[in-house]
């Protein structure tokens, strides 16, 4: 017997909601997925900041680690809203469509209760109540799911709940979206024209916002909250998805006409159904396309950020591992100790020195020519090693400073020099002899030879000086021999002659030279292995040849010079200077952090220094090629100094958590799309039950109807997948490199390009395709089953 009691407001709301429990449950599930995704993403990013710098990089002080963690955390905070916003947009779109489906399913109910006096205020109250219940249920289920995920992956469950303000805000926004969309859906028949105008306005605004983001993003930097960085991915991906939706609508209408010309029911009937129901399919297409676009974007961001960070770090390091020895020099013993480390394949000295060129501050980088191929990194192709190697050897530009060191022989253990010194004064000259040696790695060292002056009958003195070779890597080579006034108090001019030079344990060397030490000087170069380009002993030579160098684009543009031009540079903080000729221009040089830099082979640079003076600028770094994991042992071997590698630093490592964060958000987007797609398809199937009987009456069997529905849905989802991939690729090409540069500290301007990480992308798309395929198969089976019993109603006849 029917219940004739009047319904109270509470009972009415319960009855009203219970009739559409399935769609409301889908809405709650959507909110739950969004809340869980936001909670897990924020927990992951917070954890990245917490564990950063633990253990600290070898040789790095705790306060330096803390500074880098703070810098990385600030940059990460500037990009975090983009992830939350992307999840909110997907969830909001899905929730809004589910609300419209609820409103469409209640069309007759709404008309009835309105006719019986259901006021506008009561309608708003009812819709808001349902939105609140959906939001509350989503928060509870989503928080529980986030805690469970955290426990499964080994985190503390409480860490997933630490971001509860964001979770509550997400749920509240989705509840409001649901209530507003539900209310607008109930009023759709009286506001269709206004709704279309509003939708068109939203599309135009999103497209304009996307153009603004693409324009302004290159100027953004993640030093704090930047609205452009925060909204860039969501706006550009949404704009791409809207364009994909427009293409889908146009293609569906265009295909329906030729498809209808086929004599069979297929493909005309499915094509016409899609063309007629574009407003219903639009949200499913938008969600799937946006999800695929996000997956492509996540793949691009992950691969591009890794490449840009690694390449930038590699350019700055110059090699796989780099140790700055400043303020001390890097001697052959340091290089030998580095080469002996397990995991190090080769080691070499390097000079990274500040210089001045006119009013510009620049950097000078030098490594031995023999170390360019085995030690210097290519930095992902950013460094032109062929141009660097062309600076020395047979390909060296003519008329430039060239080194031709003399080998001491395999068995050499020391160096002995005999020289005759004649002074114009009355005191016996007592010069000190020194030699500049290069070991097998090209590491230079100044070897002071011990000896005494023996007087000769003609008033001159014979100096016999000898010293053992220092620690280093044999075989050794002799680059220069010089003399110092020594312990003499006389300032008289001194005439010096090299009589014999012997490599102890190997044999005599063919070296004969003489030079004059003027009274105004304390040192002189007696012999220099520069192939006779200059005459040693005549003091600074302004006519000495320049050293060939590769300069950066930035330096070339700043100075307004090109290949073949000669320029002067000064060593910062000293009165020394040198000349360089531009051999070639490259984007970057290894080891330079400044865009204004030049590179020269170390042997040629040493010769150029000795042609203009009597001392050298010693290398101040050790570069090594090998496994970056050898950094701890290398640091310990070189006095616990910090080791720079091509791997991301602490700050860049913190920001690198964004890449997994995007994949977590993409996983949530896949779940959101599948939930929404299932609800949309199921609602559409219920609304189209009447046509099954008509098709059956026309002779189309149950199996054929199931196949047609599968073809219809498969075409829709397939087109959405393809268009979403294209939209994601375009969005990635437009903003990913600039976004990485904006949020990651230390990215060099030349680092760029777009790349994709295929493995996770294929996995994500496969999961989405499998879920959509299951939905299509389920609907096809349901249609086939329903078509077996469906009959044509009287109203259809």
In short:
The protein is built from 21 helices and 19 strands. By secondary structure, it is an alpha+beta fold. Strands 4, 5, 6, 7, 8, 9, 10, 11, 12 and 13 form a ten-stranded antiparallel beta sheet that branches.
Structure overview:
This protein is α+β, with helices and mostly antiparallel strands and 797 residues long. The protein folds into 3 domains: 11-315 and 650-789, no CATH class; 321-403 and 544-645, no CATH class; 406-528, Lipoxygenase-1 (Sandwich). It is 53% helix and 17% strand. It is built from 21 helices and 19 strands. Strands 4, 5, 6, 7, 8, 9, 10, 11, 12 and 13 form a 10-stranded antiparallel β-sheet that branches. It has a 6-stranded mixed barrel with strand order 2-3-17-14-16-15. Strand 10 (494-504) and strand 11 form a beta hairpin. Helix 20 packs antiparallel against helix 21. The protein starts with 8 loop residues before the first helix and ends in an 8-residue tail after the last helix.
